[in-house]
Amino acid sequence: MADEKIRNGEFWALALERAQLGAWDWDLLSGECYYSPTWWHMLGYEEGELANTADLWLQLTHPDDRERALASGDRHIAGLTDSIETELRLKHKSGHWVWVLDRGGVVERDAEGRPLRLMGVQTDITRQKQAEAELEQVNVRFRLALAASGTGIWHHNLGADKSYWDARTREIYGLVADTDEVAGDLWHTFLHPDDKGDAESAHLAPLETHNVVAVQYRIIRRDGEIRHIESLVRFIADSQSAGQILGTVRDITEAKQREQELAHAARHDALTGLLNRAAFDRLLAEHIATARRLPLAVFYVDLDYFKALNDFAGHAAGDLALKSVASGIVGCLPPSAHAARLGGDEFALLVPNCDAAQAETLAAAVLAAVRDADLGLAATSRKLAVSVGIAFVDDHRTTVADALACADDACYAAKAAGRNRFAVFSAEATSGSGGLNAARLAADTVDAMDDGRLKLFGQEIHLLGKPWQESRHVEVLARLAARNGKLVPPGEFIPAAERFGVASRLDRWIISTALSLYGPALKSGAVTLGFNLSAQTLSDPQLWDFVDAIISETGAPHSGIGFEITETAAVTNYAAAEQFVRKARERRCRVSLDDFGAGMSSFEYLRRFPVDAIKIDGSFIEHIAQSKFDREIVSAISGIARSLGCSVVAEKIEQPKALDILQGMGVAYGQGFLLHRPEPLEAIVARAISAIAPAVLPGRRFGSSKG
Ligand code: C2E
Ligand code: CA
Ligand code: CA
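YS: structure for the whole thing
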């Protein structure tokens, strides 16, 4: 039964069908070829659908595969090979190509051994071929990716103790060799001594974990060059041997450098190379926290005149100056100190374990370094200076912000005291009136003189009951326009200026500015001006040289100029006030005693100061209508003043009633919001000039009762 089936081939046909093998049977003598149903089906045909010519398969074969397929058959027929085995593409009925594996061989020969009949099978291997093609594509991609990333691959055969480095790996290590195989211990000889231990143990780690381990280390190439390497390492177990370690290497030297550069840039100021603000803050916090570095000195260093240099010589020159200042500062520092640029023209230093004497020596060195800094060609004629504020931190609970704020305030004090100097922060100076803000305000007042934010205002002084033209006198009042545009009243910034020693400069500035601007108006007699003088100005021995010079420069007449000195200033600087008044007299400049009564000093002083006028303090005038006491005081003061031959001026006349009372008492002059509110001096002078334009008026001179 079974034999039967074998003979009739039914069984085989079934087996071929199941195995999806297409069989062929080629009779060499007749040239006829038989194809099994599976073969037809494999190509999408019904059995015998195409004319069965001898070369049917060849016609269906892809042109590119024909030659190879024929050659394989010819070689076998010629006895050169044991069998036919070839891969080729056959055209499917629907037009696509089917990859087949063709295997077969001679099954019958004639008596002389010449082949008569060949048989074989063709298997559809399209799926394998596709998988192969995909794998090849993955391979190509993988090789491309490796090449693009510059990654090298290597493996180490643990059993044989041999390593295989691909060309890229060898290139990375600077190894000249044209085979992959290298000695098993070669890699170790490249390792940087500092990284050797870590790198080696990382390469052993995969043996335990079977994970991918990443490690970075340095190698020293044979020519001495140090490179940074990153490796990914993995252990591959193998039942036949001890297994392999598989790895990649990548040269990350450039990336490391960029990383370091970025880290540096994040901590440093690009222009000067000093630490930046954030880095300085962190460093300061660390130092304060470490008690053994205390006391620690924090310096706040602010360039003076930098803005002027920048405007004058341009930003490139400004940058150059900043660099040169920075290197000058760095040159002064002890090794443990750090310098930072906080921004603009501000720097900060931190000096661990620094006592007062060391800090002062260092501050002096910084001042000298900045003075001597090479500002470059564009700015040779310019000089820079610094104001340095020093604060000491001796308590590790101090915050960074407090430490810097104290140094900053000391710096303001140095600026206010005249720049190009240092000041040490003192809690007492700060806790006084105005506190830290006073120092700031004083410094800002100094700046305001340079950048046009100090303004001249004026208030008319009237002969009571007469139009202003009868007196034509104006009290000059200073106003400070803050950086935010707000007008700061002198009551705020003058005390600050006095405390930080800049009041005298301020008074000089007011006098010289007003006389330069309005010298002609004074000369024409359109106005007379009264200047307020602080106590400091009063005791300034060079004051009259200065005033004389301005007067001769501007042509303003002495008689048009008056000075107001406060009673308290006169009393506390008695000798200076006496001198001042004498010199004013010599020049026929008027002098008024300001805020009279406020200090409640003895009238006795009045006899010693032969002033032209006394100005009764506004506090007695404000409520004069309501207060009998005030009326009595004012009446007494004006009586004495008259007896001494002084004019009397009442301040702060706000109500018509007060005006009546004062006139009734015989007070000749007055000022106050009722008569005129302070306004820019320019406006008052312009009005005065246009009023007298037709002819220069004679008229009564303010305070002219004394000669
Ligand atoms: P002062 O010399 O007593 O100037 C008069 C002050 O009284 C001015 O204040 C003026 O605006 C204000 N005033 C005038 N009339 C009235 C009024 O009817 N009611 C009220 N409530 N106030 C009136 P200001 O301009 O704020 O000046 C304050 C002080 O600042 C001045 O007092 C003067 O001592 C000082 N000062 C002003 N300019 C200068 C200056 O250039 N140098 C110096 N050293 N001190 C100045
Ligand atoms: Ca005054
Ligand atoms: Ca006054």
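YS: worth flagging: The pocket of C2E (ligand 1) is lined by residues 459, 477-478, 489-491, 494, 503, 507, 510, 532-534, 564, 594-595, 618, 651-654, 671-673, 678 (CB under 6 Å).
IM: good catch. Also The first helix runs from residue 2 to 8.
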